[in-house]
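Take a record:
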Amino acid sequence: MLAEIITIGDEILIGQIIDSNSAWIAQRLNAIGIRVKQISSVSDDREHILTALAEASVRVDIILITGGLGPTKDDITKKTLAEYFGVGLIENKEALENVEKIFKRLRGPLTELLDVNKQQALVPENCEVIINQNGTAPGMWFNKDGKIYMSMPGVPHEMMYMMEGAVIPKLKSTFKLPFIVHKTILTAGEGESYLAEKIADIENSLPPYIKLAYLPKLGQVRLRLSAYGDDETLLNNEVSEYTAKIVERVGNSIIAQEDIPLEKAILNLMAEKELTLSTGESCTGGYIAHLITQHPGSSKVYFGGAVSYSYELKESILGVKNETLWQYGAVSKETVTEMVQGALLNFKSDYAIAVTGIAGPDGGTPEKPVGTVWIGVANAEKTITKKFQFGNKRLQNIERTAIAALNMLHRLLRELETN
């Protein structure tokens, strides 16, 4: 079963807002066995909308539309849908009562609704109205020539409640949907092409109903197995079998066998072993701490850390020696070693991360160009340091440094498991 998502609005096309609706809808459809074939964004233009609808009807079985619904003149989705289906607009009693109820709740008793607000209750005569419990614009469900069209508001929370409460249940009851099974393997430290070569024979042996996707991100690659079919037990068993083969082949690059971020995998591992962590950051400016603390329960593991840009703070907070800084510089093996050992000592954690480098775009020298980074990870028994040479883009350097540091920490934690 194939679907297409069409988002309507000039604000998307000029970059004023980011189309988060499509990503959210696609995830929910995928979870119930509906595959999204295409996502399109079109302007608030009658001809563009009509063309998008006609083209989508050839490609897919289900067309989900968001945006262009409202009381103002530029909200033309409803009128265009009526034209597309060759029908008129009629007032829907239930939709009108919903508009009145919402206005009373928000503004108190009203003597009358403005005509522009009453127009929210006008819908194409061939649609089934889906009441919007969180706004005035109703959803509209159409079943035409075996194709389902569903028009929803563009306001994210209104669309989400409508999808969860009404649209997904209706899709499940309308179609016999296949089972879909996903399994994600998170890896770090090896590139996409290297991994692909390493597991090429396993990928070539996959049956046609199981697909392997490579999802690269800076310093990481997620391997996602997706299986589609009518026998859920068989799919789960086969996906588990191929997952085990990949895990065995890839080995030390495996971070987690679930779709979670690298830092969350580390938090889970450390929480399970009742271990604690601290950080000493320079060039990343607290980004590592941010990655860690965005996850609920991180306080069980993470004590805290220091953002020590200056020589003075490296000395006073992390205990880096003044002579080390002046002899070797802030971006050096000697300095990062003292930073990470100082974090362990001063913050009294079991493990620590320290990073120091030149994020850019300026500040580099011939000996230490922009992108030069030293990373240290340590526990009471062992300190590991490594030099990296990233590029000249500041934000990418910060992210790459954080991921490399977390990957080094993960490898040190794995040593604990093997000893």
In short: The first helix runs from residue 10 to 13. The chain has a mean pLDDT of 93. The CA atoms of residues 374 and 387 lie 5 Å apart. The domain at 179-256 is CATH 3.30.70.2860 (Alpha-Beta Plaits).
